[in-house]
């Protein structure tokens, strides 16, 4: 109710005066409607005017920079569409007209460089100085986990961008954090059966794993699933984020006797390690699988993804099946000049879902918005209907399995993959408490 009055032009001071007048007139039953307007986080200060500020942190430098820029474009397009009342946003958030609850969205962007400390410092400034009503970003799961903790402490909602770690909505979940995209567990459960079907049972796997929460949890999920088909791990080569040279790791892989190389690296690390695997002759000895697909890897590896299976969040050719995907592809390509990758898609949908929840709650008050998410409402997305689990705030959504096209079969310069399967999300999910999620309090 407070937000509605503010949208109609009543100042906060005027609101307090009006409330006092109502009390003086013995209209006491109206009092409970204002009880939830007590300050929490950046609310209501951050939405007391005609705008609402969003803090965005993505890697614009470092090994994840290319993916970070794509993610940022998705955020920017979503904000533009929300502020203008675009038809696509209305398909996802029907109550949105222009802005969220009538507030024009403003935003700031910080370069996280995929470093948790830098992301937290930037978002803390957005909260303190700009009264950010919501923060978003990620790309690195280490960043996402750190922002989870910041959001819970500051009582400001964090809508996670790209994050593949099981921990983000597992042991490091928080009441104030939400994630829309797929993650290690769902990737493994989706691509594992395809690998067993294509390569057989009882195979030997070698892993290239980045040394942080994303890498370790994705590798663990893959190992756990493949073990059910008799697969064994002959080597797990763990490298630091941003490693410039994978030669020592690849030498161990080459000598391991593995049938399949499972490259869990992400961003430029995935590109570099795949290119070097080819140079070292590893890809001549064994099959390559990318269980958590990296945006732009097909383009950047110069065709090394031909015939390679990967799990991904989104691929633009599903526009033939999903009308909202077609609307998004057309709007994105018109603005940016290329087909959207899954980082942009995920950012856009996450933002649209947040707008929807604010509109459903009728308020920016964080506990009200959180409870709107926790109703588990069926929501439109670019990959069909989805919903958020109240227990861990993870979106239940399909995972796409793609296979790299041979160059001769590509219809255009961005036609890198065939979509092999769209795997429904419900059957891919672990039980809500399986990874230790205890989200914490609302206030």
UniProtKB/TrEMBL annotation:
Key word 4Fe-4S present in the record?
no
Enumerate the spans annotated as Leucine-binding protein domain. Answer: 53-406
Q: What is this protein called?
A: Branched-chain amino acid ABC transporter substrate-binding protein
Q: Name one GO biological process term.
A: amino acid transport
Tell me if Transport is a UniProt keyword of this record: yes
User: Which Pfam family, an example, fits this chain?
Assistant: Peripla_BP_6
InterPro entries hit by this protein:
BCAA_transport, Leu-bd, Peripla_BP_I, TAT_signal
Q: Cite the SUPFAM superfamilies for this sequence.
A: Periplasmic binding protein-like I
């Amino acid at each position: 109710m407070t937000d509605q009055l503010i949208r109609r032009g009543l100042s906060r001071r005027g609101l307090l005066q009006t409330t006092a007048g109502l009390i003086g007139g013995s209209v006491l039953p109206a009092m409970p409607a204002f009880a939830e307007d007590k300050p929490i986080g950046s609310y209501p200060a951050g939405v007391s005017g005609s705008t609402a500020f969003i803090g965005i942190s993505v890697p614009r430098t470092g090994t994840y920079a290319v993916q970070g820029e794509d993610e940022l474009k998705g955020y920017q397009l979503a904000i533009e569409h929300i502020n203008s009342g675009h038809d696509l946003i209305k398909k996802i958030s029907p109550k949105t007209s222009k802005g969220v609850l009538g507030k024009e969205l403003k935003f700031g962007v910080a370069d996280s460089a995929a470093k948790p400390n830098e992301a937290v410092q930037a978002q803390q400034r957005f909260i303190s100085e700009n009264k950010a009503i919501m923060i978003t970003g990620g790309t690195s799961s280490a960043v996402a986990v750190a922002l989870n903790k910041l959001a819970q402490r500051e009582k400001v909602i964090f809508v996670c961008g790209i994050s593949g770690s099981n921990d983000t909505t597992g042991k490091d979940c928080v009441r104030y954090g939400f994630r829309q995209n797929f993650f290690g567990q769902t990737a493994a459960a989706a691509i594992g059966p395809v690998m067993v079907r294509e390569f057989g049972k009882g195979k030997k796997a070698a892993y290239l794993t980045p040394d942080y929460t994303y890498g370790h949890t994705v590798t663990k999920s893959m190992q756990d699933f493949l073990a059910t088909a008799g697969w064994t791990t002959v080597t797990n080569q763990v490298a630091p984020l941003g490693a410039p040279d994978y030669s020592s790791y690849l030498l161990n892989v080459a000598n391991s006797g593995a049938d399949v190389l499972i490259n869990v690296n992400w961003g430029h690390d995935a590109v570099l390690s795949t290119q070097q695997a080819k140079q070292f002759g590893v890809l001549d000895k064994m099959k390559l699988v990318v269980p958590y697909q990296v945006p732009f890897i097909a383009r950047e590896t110069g065709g090394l993804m031909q015939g390679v299976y990967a799990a991904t969040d989104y691929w633009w050719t599903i526009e033939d099946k999903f009308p909202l995907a077609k609307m998004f592809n057309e709007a994105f390509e018109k603005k940016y000049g290329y087909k959207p990758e899954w980082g942009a898609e995920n950012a856009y949908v996450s933002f649209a879902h947040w707008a929807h929840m604010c509109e459903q709650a009728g308020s920016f008050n964080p506990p009200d918005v959180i409870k709107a998410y926790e109703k588990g409402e069926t929501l439109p997305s670019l990959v069909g209907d989805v919903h958020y689990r109240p227990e861990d705030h993870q979106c239940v959504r399909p995972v796409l399995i793609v296979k790299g096209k041979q160059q001769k079969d590509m219809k255009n310069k961005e036609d890198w993959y065939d979509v092999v399967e769209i795997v429904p999300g419900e059957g891919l999910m672990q039980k809500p408490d399986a990874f230790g999620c205890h989200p914490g309090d609302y206030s």
